[in-house]
């Protein structure tokens, strides 16, 4: 290994700040907003053109929704069939109830090989459970091989987008990261590195090649798992995934239990919708599929870690469970006006944007300030629902989760509940309501322009001007 290894961190933990506070700072970062605006608008325009090529897009979208809903309704049956198929093909299946158990399983599997480093395919599930940090604590170095993930890892940063984790960085920033950090992680950046995409890609290719050729263990996620055959599928655009999935001797895949589909025929729908929704391509440059192990071809050992980590809790919610349809295309992020201005880090989760606002609170619960704030990180404009390739009604789930947060209480919610209770009593007593309306009309000159006590919510809102007399009095005089 060239260079000197300096600390193997994984992604730093997100700041413990609720969305409004984190977004307040993010929207003032002009460079961040410019990077996000350029990237999201470019991706969304290309996606719209790619989707428009298919006359049956809405039918494919509906088919994807139905496949996912059917699978979730019978998830127990399909997971058992998946385990049987993987085992029959020579793989070993492990079940992990939560992040700690998944990290322990993976750590033990890596240590059993005697290796102290692994290469990784881009994986949201491993980010979700903090696998890199857990492996680092065991003295195991995890190297991200996706270009954007490499940028984030070298920069000691955190992902800010599902598809393009380094979307918040521009080319100049990436060049500086490569120049300053690559040597500490392996092969240094070439002398005179520029910020042209070709030069940056070549620097990453040279840096990663030695890791691909040396690594004995690889870790991946999967976009889909086919229960019928035990086949796992990864969609990617760079070829790094193919290198990780074929060269190492041991392959460990950590996959959320909701990623299973029953049959190969079901997979056909997503082979059309996922590439167009994510990278705006008709098909992925690399679609890798593997089934167990084969003598003389690919890894000699394959382990599948099936991850729950809050998914069965989400499954029990009739409205919230539709978030588990998500195929991680990121189309909702690219059309969201809130994400475009605040960026992914403000969400305090590896799942940012509209899907993160409904998925993270269900996987982690809404007891923390961060997760309780996420359902409110939306204008409810509905753009996310319109582009979702599996028709997740994100606004519906957001409102549903807001109700849950409100029911939990808290000072503001207790005051709101008390106010609603008082208003309900007044509405049930017409005489009291009439007296209150008359009193309000007679004292209207004394009313403040903004309602007190609601802080930021009232900064851009004025109280409506009251008429000189209540409507019921006017009606009595003119219509009775």
Descriptive report:
The chain is of the alpha/beta class and 480 residues long. The protein is built from 22 helices and ten strands. It has helices at residues 19-26, 30-52, 57-73, 75-88, 99-113, 124-128, 131-137, 147-154, 171-185, 197-214, 240-246, 264-278, 311-315, 331-335, 337-342, 353-364, 369-373, 383-387, 394-408, 411-427, 430-442, 471-478, and strands at 92-96, 117-120, 141-144, 217-220, 224-226, 231-236, 250-256, 260-261, 286-291, 301-307. It has a six-stranded parallel sheet, sandwiched between helices. β5 and β6 (231-236) form a beta hairpin. α9 runs parallel beside α10 (197-214). The longest helix is centred in the N-terminal third of the chain and has 23 residues, at 30-52. It is elongated, with a radius of gyration of 26 Å. The termini are far apart. Mean pLDDT is 91; it is low at 1-13.
- Integer average pLDDT: 91
Percent strand: 5-15%
| C-alpha-based Rg, rounded | 26 Å
Low-confidence stretches: 1-13
Largest pleated sheet = 6 strands, parallel
- Proportion of residues in helical segments: 40-55%
Placed side by side, the strands forming the largest sheet appear as 1-10-7-4-2-3
Number of strands: 10
Keywords:
480 residues; alpha/beta; six-stranded parallel beta sheet; four-stranded mixed beta sheet; 10 strands; 10% strand; disordered N terminus
